[in-house]
Amino acid sequence: MEKTCELMRMGYAAHQLREVFTCCLRRAWAAAKATAALLTRSAASLWAEAQNMENRSRLDFQGIERLSQLRRAYHIAKAREDTKAEEQAYAKEVAA
After folding, report:
1. What is the phi/psi pair of residue 59, to 5°?
2. H or E element at residue 76
3. Nearest to residue 17, comparing CAs of 3, 27, 33, 29?
4. Is residue 73 within 8 Å of 53, Cβ to Cβ?
5. Cα–Cα distance measured from residue 51 to residue 72, given in angstroms and rounded to the nearest whole number
6. Residue 6: its pLDDT value, please?
């Protein structure tokens, strides 16, 4: 109820709150899906896209944010792939 009063002070009428909540929820869902899609990509593809963006002469705010997301996702994917390679090497060593 406290949030409702805060949103009303921001200029939203009571009947608009449902629309505002719907819009915020859609944005959050889209951001979560985009993050999940990035995390499923390989480190090589993330690195290639990041290098492509870094070689551009200009980046707007969205471009800088995208580059930041790509770099974070690259480091996560690289760690995931390194861990998987270590596990496979260990499994081969144990099997031998």
Report:
1. -130, 135
2. helix 61-95
3. 3
4. no
5. 13
6. 66
Instruction: Find tokens 């390679």 and name the residue.
Output: 85
DSSP secondary-structure letter at 10?
T
Residue of 18, 76, 16, 89 lying closest to 47 (CA atoms) = 76
Structure tokens at 65: 């944010």
Q: Which two tokens stand for residue 6?
A: 């805060």
3-state SS string for 6-34: HHHHCCCCHHHHHHHHHHHHHHHHHHHHH
The position carrying tokens 């471009």 is 63
Q: Please identify every stretch of the chain with a pLDDT value under 50, giving residue numbers as ranges.
A: 1
The angle at the Cα of 65, spanning 42 to 68, to the nearest 5 degrees, equals 45
What pLDDT, on a 0 to 100 scale, did the predictor assign at position 43? 94
DSSP H or E segment with residue 89: helix 61-95
Distances, alpha carbon 89 to alpha carbons 44, 54, 58, 80, 96, in Å: 21, 34, 43, 14, 11
Cα separation, 47 vs 35, in Å, equals 16
